[in-house]
Amino acid sequence: MFRYRRHYKTLLLLLFSAGSIIIFHSCLKSDKPGIPQEVVEVIQQTGFNRIELTKTIGNYLRPEDSLKLKAAYFLISNMPRQYSIDFSLKDSLGNEISYNPQTISTEDEFISYWQNLEDQLGGVSFEAEKFTLDRDTIEAETLIETINLAIESRSYPWSQNYSFDDFLIGVLPYRIGNEHIEQWRPFLKDWFLPLLPEKIKHDPREVAHWVNNYINDNFRFDIRYIKKSEVQPIRSMFAAKAGNYQDLSYLKVNALRSLGIPSYLNYIPYFADSTYSYYFVSFLNTEHKYEVLPHKGHELLLEQTKRIPKIYRRTILEMKTGLFAQKNIEKTTPPFLGHYHYEDVTSMYLGVENITFNGECYDSLVYLTVFNDKKWRAIDWAICKNDQAIFQSVSKPDNYRFAFLPDSSKTLQFLIEDTPLQLPVTK
Q1: Tell me, what's the pLDDT at 125?
Q2: Which DSSP symbol is given to 343?
């Protein structure tokens, strides 16, 4: 009862008094159990939206909701740098272009359309227009529904052997990347639960592969979506039955998480000497290993080692060793490398080695680049010290170059050589 009252008093202080932060902060310095300091700091960082965060915590102060309260603390404490991005497609003069994949009838028509678009407009590119921080906009309703349904999924027979830590990292998160937040969990749970065959319901591995096969058989890769920068919403995916590999991978991860199976988005930022980036899914199996769920026809993807220099895994956890945590948030960095938290998982799937650059760096950050879709693209970063930068755990491609990004520039430049790299960069 004392703990309940103490939580409640703390929440009231925070919620109803704009000047209560100092009081609130000092109240939490007691050695007795209370709201974790990292949660307090997130609530202090936001403005009017603190009411939504405190409502979420207040919903779980009863003793029987202790796991849900821990889940709420986990989500809020990892919220500070979670955000959504709105992109726009622009030509070389900065004019915005409207593009809807579903207005183009065939894939051949798309290829012709896009080529004409680039030829006529001098090139087109996606630019980030708006960043929306979760801590300032997320609603208590979304957090509470997420927590309730995620905790419910722990009761499914195939998910009961996963630890609570596995659950927090691989099941609970309400977002994967920088997509717009949507309430996908109830929709996907209601879709997949009735379809699961009874004979597989005690084996998470069989459930995961069944879901993967279902999506492979009912949703297809469609080239018309490769030039769409934002992830398709779940309901749009079910209407179109098509998407790019990022769309398909997000759908698979969210479907598995709705069923209580820890799952993760992995991505290859850029293939070497090829085109585009690539996304695929892994899940945690009963042997506590990350097992790949391949897209249809791509079962041998990871054998193409010379084309895959790096594999990263998106995570909700703050990765203090990552560029996103270390860099000044205003510093411009290439796509995939400094925009969110991720783990380097290359060594889980491929043979790796270190690649070292020796020479004058011109900047504290040096990038390893590969040639992809007619441009050199950054796939890894390293800090330059004493005229040396070491790129660790790289599946060494045949063809790579070192580069740096001058201040206030969107164009990478080769180190040693003066040839510019035409690589679009966003913050």
Answers
A1: 73
A2: E
